[in-house]
Request: fold
Amino acid sequence: MHNVVSIKHDRTLGLAPIFKPLQRGERSEGKLDVSIVGEKEQIRVTCFEPLGADDQTILFSILSLCTSESRSQILSHEPMTEVGRSLRSELFIRRSSQRDSLMVSVSEWEILSLCGKTDGSENYEHLRDSLARLASVNIRVKNDNEDYVIRLLAYYVNKENGQVQIAVNTRSAAAILGDQYAYIDLADHRRLGSEASKILHGWLSTWMPQGSTRRIGAGKLASHIYANYDSVASDSRRTYRSYAKRAAMMLKDLGWLVELSGRGEKAMYEISRPKITNF
Reply:
C-alpha cells in the first residue's frame, strides 16, 4: 500500500464547486463566484479568477501540512510574532475573530514535491501565481449571529531563506483541530491523471465516508465536476457526462469500486470508497 498523506478538510468548502476543469484562456476571462445556502448559514466564495484542479492540489498540499501535528502550529488571535500578526491581518477582512487559525512554515520546493511537481522554474512561477489566487479568495459567512469575510489563506514569503509561512482560514483550522472534517488522501489525488478526476475525487471524498457505498445519477455526478452542467445545451451535457464517466472510472485504479448502469442522464453510478485509515 502506498503511503497515505492525510488531509482534513472543511466539509462545506469541500462540497462547494470552488474548483473546476479549466479550458485554455478561461482563467483570464472568468471569475469565481459560488454561493452555498445551508440550514444554519450562507456562504459566498469569490475570487478575481476561477480556480482549477492545479489550485486545488496546491491547497490540498497546504492542508496536508496543517493536518500534520508535527508541522503546523496554532495561530491565535493574539500572535506573538510579527509574521503571525501579518498573517492574521491578511486573513481577516474588516473584522477579526477570536477563533484560532493554523500556520506552517514550508519551502516552495516542498509544496511542489507534495504536488508531484519538479523544481523547474515554470513550476515555481505557477506555484507563486496559485498562492496569489488562493490568498485572494474571499469567504463571506452569514448566520443568525455573524456576518464576516475571511480569506481562504494568507501567506508570507521570506526572500532571504526561501521559506513560505502560510496560514489557513479559521474554518479549515476548526475542521483540522476538531472532529467534523472530510478526509482526503493527497497521494491518491496526486495519482489521478486528469483535472476532472481530481475534482471528482475531492468532492466524493468529502461526500462519502471511508468504507461507504452510495448511488448517484450520471447527471448529478457530472454537475459536481462541471458546475454549469444544468445550464448548457443537451449536447454539452452529454459531453460532460462522457468526461465525468472517464473521471469516475479512473478511481478504480485507487481501489474504489465504480459501477454504471443504464444510459444517458438517467444512468446511475454505484460507488464504493475504500477504507484506508482512521483518525
Summary: The chain is about 40% helix and 25% strand. The mean pLDDT is 91. Residues 6-183 form one domain. The CA atoms of residues 192 and 198 lie 6 Å apart.
